[in-house]
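Protein folds are increasingly written down as discrete tokens. With that in mind, we are printing a sequence and the tokens encoding its fold.
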Amino acid sequence: MLWALLIATESAGQLFTKVAGDQLGQMDFTWQWLADVARNPGILAAIASYLGAFFVWMLILRRSSLSLAFPLSSLVFVAVLLGSWLGLGEHISLLHWVGVVVIVAGIVLLAEGEES
């Protein structure tokens, strides 16, 4: 349950950041641009998502070894790719899909090694 929540909150943070960045356009670093960033709902949602992910990550680390937990967190890469494809309509190349298979295979190997 915690893992699903971590993957969901971290992935949501990335997707919210992407959408907000597209809405905000060029980064001018003026006071007006910073005010626009501070009021952007996507940025606020991203910050909330990252904050939630931080606390979930702390709970996970209390229960798991870092040597297993950190590699397992790479499932976020897979979730962001799926969210980009399904939610944002981005094109995902064959090499990206191969990368997903490699990530998942690596996680399976790590999980099997942990059980041994």
